[in-house]
């Protein structure tokens, strides 16, 4: 299958999160379905930041939610430290899922406007049975860690904060539960550019301090390349390319990766202006994806084989994998 196969997964020892052949579909009426995620596999090593990038609608958020089992994937495997999340239910799933936390795109709407910051951040620890005094202490510690003064911030409500400050509160709410893996779904896309850099810097600091593993999802490759150790490029529910960030940026092998690099404004990647851009504006519908390689209808290199046969992931460099019949190698 295009963009699938699992040869590119690494030995289990260092891997904290391992996702195999993940499939998520949604009903689309009249018996049709949206093929949102169609056989995606990746792993994330402890302490690593894996970036997931692709245009809007390529299945990034659905992948993120499927990791949390919200909703459960149609098929595939999601293992956290070896525990198969797709097989867990009830209390065991709840307990295991605590070790995976998410941060979302729109911090303001993801905070309850009626509650004070103290209660928002303390909610998780309280649900987990932490005595009130200890929960308070943890809240103060986390608010300080995200750069807010607990004495000032804890008693206020979300509307009294800027977007960047609200994202700091969301980060505190996620980290107070001491997760191993934090899934950041477009965490800075809704913020002003100057604030974006501050939040990215904060995530980097917190990652070191709390030894976190991050999955960092964004449509903007310029942002993803700066924070990720490796990057997974998605297109219409499939993986196109998976590589260390430097290799992906310096030697992109998939025509789609090259098109994404070419579209970064301000040309921050040397040579990327020369890469061919996409041949048409909109991706096809995920309810009716093209046969063979899903990217072929917009690909400058497509040939007859691309319609007939799905490309499997294959190695094109040290730890660089691509799902393309005609990669740039
Ligand atoms: N609940 C749903 N019901 C039906 N279709 C859905 C649902 N959620 C997502 N989809 C569809 O699944 C596909 C993948 O969407 P998803 O939101 O995961 O993409 P994305 O890459 O995260 O895009 P964005 O950045 O715009 O959120 C899209 O075609 C989307 O329309």
UniProtKB/TrEMBL annotation:
GO molecular function term, any single one: ATP hydrolysis activity
ABC transporter domain sequence ranges: 17-261
SUPFAM superfamilies xref list: P-loop containing nucleoside triphosphate hydrolases (SSF52540)
Pfam families in UniProt: ABC_tran (PF00005), oligo_HPY (PF08352)
Keyword check for Isomerase: no
Keywords from the named record: ATP-binding, Nucleotide-binding, Transport
Xref: InterPro entries: AAA+_ATPase, ABC_transp_ATP-bind, ABC_transporter-like_ATP-bd, ABC_transporter-like_CS, Oligopep_ABC_C, P-loop_NTPase
GO biological process: one example: transmembrane transport
Database matches in NCBIfam families: oligo_HPY
Family stated for the protein in its record: Belongs to the ABC transporter superfamily.
Name this protein carries in UniProt: Peptide/nickel transport system ATP-binding protein
Organism of provenance: Thermocatellispora tengchongensis
Organism lineage: Bacteria, Bacillati, Actinomycetota, Actinomycetes, Streptosporangiales
